[in-house]
Amino acid sequence: MFSSTLRTSARMASRASVRAFTTARAAPSTKVYTSLAAAGVVSFAAYQAAQYPVRLEGAKTIAGEKGTASERSFVMIKPDGVSRQLVGKIISRFEERGYKLVAIKSLTPSPALAKEHYIDLASRPFYAGLVKYITSGTPVVAMVWEGKDIIRQGRRIVGATNPLESDPGSVRGQYAVSVGRNLIHASDGFDSATKEIGLWFDEAELSEYEPIAWPWVMADN
Ligand code: DAT
Ligand code: MG
User: Fold this and answer.
1) Which of 116, 148, 154, 211 is 20 to 30 A (C-alpha) from 132?
2) 126 CB under 6 A from ligand 1?
3) Which residue has the CA at smallest separation from atom 25 of ligand 1?
4) Residue nearest to atom 3 of ligand 1 (CA)
5) Rounded to an integer, what distance in angstroms lies between the CA atom of residue 157 and that of residue 66?
6) What pTM, to 2 d.p., does this model score?
7) Which position among 55, 115, 117, 185 bears the catalytic label?
8) Ligand 1 neighbour 180 (Cβ under 6 A)
9) 135-187, pLDDT tens digit by residue?
């Protein structure tokens, strides 16, 4: 799974190489990808391509097109949400709002995947505990949701990082009280959605279809 994801990102990178491009973030720490490459998880070049997916200005990425109805977000129900059997209730929020489920799978992530997913937090004191919790053996439910403003609205549905600060109508505000067990993840921007969807899913796992209610949900008149 990890390697097919890397292939996708590498494809995106090579497609872009004939044109001017921007990268999502500044140069990464060599320490991190050197250790993953050394561990045999990935080749240096493939890992770099995966960590920093190349994005053409205004072009579509694996996260769709920013600001359009094709925009996509990576949403993950964490092990506490699965263990507390809140999966159906959480999914319903996205479905009922009018978002399209593009991909879904249940898995226990490898430490390499969990570490990479949260790599931006690597220097924080809670990082090791966060990775341990995500890889505990109780699965996560990884999803891709699509629709108008899904990245921003997904964050609103999820609620503030600390559930004690979350709006009571949000998932975290309704079901959680601890920042360390806040049930759910959602991409916080287009670049992170591009990175995260590419990290967790192969392009072939993402469905293209139109839900029957789509015109009723999407019309602006
Ligand atoms: P979010 O999940 O809202 O995007 P984040 O990206 O800042 O928040 O952090 C990722 C996760 O790390 C978060 O969902 C829970 C955990 N976390 C964040 N801050 C924490 C803290 N101060 N103590 C313990 N865990 C924390
Ligand atoms: Mg985050």
Assistant:
1) 154
2) yes
3) 180
4) 161
5) 19
6) 0.80
7) 185
8) yes
9) 999 999 999 999 999 999 999 999 999 999 999 999 999 999 999 999 999 99
